[in-house]
User: Fold these one by one.
Assistant:
Number 1:
Amino acid sequence: MRISDRILFDGVRANLQHNLGQVARVGEELASGRRLHVPSDDPVATAQALRHRRDLALNRQYLRGVDAARARLSAVDQALGGLTETLQRARELALQAGSGVLGTDQMQAIGVELNQLVQHAIQLGNTSFAGQFLFAGTKTTTPPFAPTGDPNVPTSVTYTGNAVAIAQDLGQGVQVRVDVPGNQAVLPAIQALIQLRDAVTAGDSVAATGPALSALDGALDTVLQVRGSVGARVNRLDAIGNQLTEEQTSLEGLRSGLEEIDVADTVVRLNAARNVYEAALGAAARAIQPSLLDFLR
């Protein structure tokens, strides 16, 4: 079978273009640091890399959720910590008032301080974080505790929030509650403080160390229990955050292995492609010997 010069030239040119294309592709990988530029480079690896990117995006979203939940619960615990100190100070004042050795002026002075503690407790109950009231349930745009009567000497307080839970999504089927209903944790404390203040202001030392102190101790126990629950949720957030961080590292490694190059291996492949191309050039030069003068002879 006779092979014409044109067929030979076309075959050599096609092979050279193919080899040069290999050099260009490997060189582009080395220059960009990426193995995948278009889906056709490796359709299977591209599909896997896209799945890993989607999972990484979800993971980052959940990690941001962990940070937001931790910050919110930290603000809740800080407010409850202030309420704990307020109740403990009120308990000290109740014991002083119930000693039976204080005069009227001293009892009135304790009553004035207790009234300040009442106002401070209301302020803590209306604590806001990132523009949301922490103890209002889902009614986060309205202060949950409204004093009745003279705001400087409130006779009672009304809770205007609700007990609907606020949960943060931190994974598929994973939620952590990030709120504390104010009517369960804060309202009893404010009511106990008002009861104690009224007893002391009336000069009733028996009531101050009796029903009022009992209500105060009950409110303090409740606040401490709620703080323990908040602490447990923060610990769970830490565990979830650690797990998500480990998953993030693993997914990033898988994505990188699919999309990014191994520099040492790519350098070897580039040198090999260059050697093949140069060898093909040499072979082509030897195979295509005739010139125009050869045809004219």
Number 2:
Amino acid sequence: MQLKMMEGRPPPASTAPVSSPAIDLSPAQSPSLTPAPARQVVHKAAIDLRVTDVRGTFAKITLLPNEATGEYIETSSLTGEEPNIAASLTLRVAASRLSETLNALRTLGTVISESATGQDITDTVMDLEARLRNEERIEREVLALLDKRADSPLSEVLTVRTQLNDIRARIEAIKAQRERAGRMVALATIVINLRSQAQPLPVAEDSGIADYFIKSVSDAWQTSLRTLSDTAAFLIRTFLGGLVWWLLLGLLALGLWRLIRRLVRAQSREAAPTE
């Protein structure tokens, strides 16, 4: 029975596989990604050198900055006489030339210590940019409002102009901060200390508990002496500085005391029985 019913039915449709549309994953169809902002890093380095000729090395280091590209010597000092002569310099060089300059400094003497740091101020710069865009947008809106109110009373126009001046002042301040941050990023800071080879290196003493106790007692004794001296000085200043007032106060007290005595004597005479 089942066979007959199946024979009477029309043949089933062909079940060919349905092909799904191809997905194009080419770069043109990929979602656009916002590129990460360039990192804004402030570079600082410090190097201590021992050299045979402090003065000559000092003169060579002063020639390292390239003034044509904005590099310069921020501070410099040369103190003492041989063999205790010492020098220090602070250079501002292009961040791209930091490694090159440090390599040049290493060739001038023996490196005693060296350090380098980098401070990321990208968030600060982005915040300044956002604040600047916002203030400039407000400035445009206020200018448009000022144009629309050209026929407004003078007091309203002056109020709007005052607000506009405040906005422009904030814009200039933000621009100055942005330029200062840009200079900090563009120019790396190198602090250089020079000492003579003949100058002995300071030796750190390994102090035990006994030395620590003696030092603590000595510091406490010095502190107490300073406190006592300060107290004595304060008393002397108070006494000498107010000497005239102390004399006037003494004379006033003496006069008051004599007046009271006279009044007491007069009252006692009046109260005495007359014969």
